[in-house]
């Protein structure tokens, strides 16, 4: 079907497809960041419930390394702050992509409605009235 579309319309369709792919990638990144943020908040909640003298360990790759309560709390708070910023940034990016997608859809609709349903071969196309074709003289 795309072969019958004007080149501008084909370009808009390609842009829409690219934007859709971008939107999916942003949504996946946002979901991952939200999941990590939830895990971090849960860890902070659990940290509040334990005694500060409790032996604590943190994961470093495949190892568990002993850590201090204050250090663990500070690292989790910093991670939480960073993730909140990341989620907010991804939400803004998601909104911009959605706006651009809607804008491109409207432009495409205008392009397609501007050419008529029949496209260039419609009622006023080659051979139609006023085009010097048969019956037009």
TrEMBL record:
Keyword Chaperone listed: yes
One Pfam family recorded for the sequence: Prefoldin_2
Keyword Chaperone: yes
Keywords attached to this entry: Chaperone, Cytoplasm
Record localization: Cytoplasm
Major localisation: cytoplasm
Protein task: Molecular chaperone capable of stabilizing a range of proteins. Seems to fulfill an ATP-independent, HSP70-like function in archaeal de novo protein folding.
Record-stated family: Belongs to the prefoldin subunit beta family.
Subunit structure: Heterohexamer of two alpha and four beta subunits.
Protein name per Swiss-Prot or TrEMBL: Prefoldin subunit beta
Organism the protein comes from: Halocatena salina
């Amino acid at each position: 079907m795309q072969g019958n579309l004007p080149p501008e319309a084909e370009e808009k369709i390609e842009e829409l497809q690219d934007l859709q792919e971008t939107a999916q990638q942003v949504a996946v990144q946002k979901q991952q960041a939200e999941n990590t943020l939830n895990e971090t908040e849960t860890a902070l909640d659990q940290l509040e419930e334990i005694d500060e003298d409790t032996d604590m360990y943190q994961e470093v790759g495949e190892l568990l390394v002993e850590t201090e309560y204050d250090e663990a709390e500070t690292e989790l708070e910093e991670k939480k702050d960073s993730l909140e910023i990341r989620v907010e940034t991804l939400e803004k990016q998601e909104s911009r992509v959605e706006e651009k997608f809607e804008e491109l859809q409207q432009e495409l609709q205008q392009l397609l409605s501007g050419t008529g349903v029949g496209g260039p071969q419609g009622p006023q196309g080659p051979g139609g009235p006023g085009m010097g074709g048969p019956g037009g003289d």
